[in-house]
C-alpha cells in the first residue's frame, strides 16, 4: 500500500514538474516572439510610441532623428544607444532591445533611437544623443536625471557625451569596441573624457569580444576614475555533450561581442541597485540620485560597494 502511494505521489510530482516546465517554455516563447517582433520594428514595448526630434543639421544626414519613447513619468529616465549603423546597427538591435526590455521591467521611462549616421568623427552621433536628452527634458513631466546606456559603437558615443551633461546621473558602456575606436571616429579618442568622469560608470565586455581584447579592456578599466565597475565576462565551463565523439575535455562557452547580451541582466541589475541605492523593482520610484559619485551626492558605508570588479 505504501509503495502504491509513493508511486502515485511520484507520478503526480512528475506531472506537476512537466506542467511547470511547459508553462515556463510557453512564457519564454511569448517573450522571445515579442522581442523578435520588436527587433523587426513591427511591435513596441507597452507604452512605447514613435517619436521624432531634431538634432544639429549635418549635410550628409539631415536633422530628423527617429526613435521609440515610453514616457512613464519617472524621475529617472534611460536612453539606449545602438551599434554602428553602416553595419546594420539600429534601435532594433537585439542587445538594445534586451536592455530596453530590462528597463521596461523596472518601470522606467525609456528612449531608444537610431543615429542618423555613423560615418565621420562622431560629432553627428553625439549631437543625436544630446538631442535625445533635450527631448526628454521637454516632456510634460520631464525626468530629473538621465541614465545613458550604449552598446558597441553606441557605448563610445555615450562615453563621449555623458560626462558633459549635468543631468546624466550615470552611464554604462556595453561591449565598447576599443580596438576600433580610432578607426570608427577617424582618429578621435571619444572615450578619453569617460576616464576622468566622476559619475558612476559601468563597463563590460565578453572575454571573447571580436573588437576589444581583454588586455585592452583591462587597461581602460584601470584608468577609470571611481566610482566605476568593470566586468570581463567569461562563459561557463561545460562538459562535452557529443556522445558519439566524446573527447574527454571540458569546453568553455564563448562570450563574444554579440552573445554578451545573454549575460547582461544580472550585471545591469546589480550595478543599478548599487548605483541608486534601492532594489531593482523600486527604481521607478527612486529620485535618480546616485548613492555615490559626484561631490554632494549621498554616500554608502565603506566596503558596501567596491569601485571595480572583474569577473573571470
UniProtKB/TrEMBL annotation:
The keyword Zinc does not apply. It comes from the Eukaryota. One of its GO terms (molecular function) is hydrolase activity. Keywords: Coiled coil, Hydrolase. The keyword Hydrolase applies. Residues 5-32 form a coiled coil. PANTHER family: AB HYDROLASE-1 DOMAIN-CONTAINING PROTEIN, ALPHA/BETA-HYDROLASES SUPERFAMILY PROTEIN. This is Alpha beta family hydrolase. It comes from Chrysochromulina tobinii.
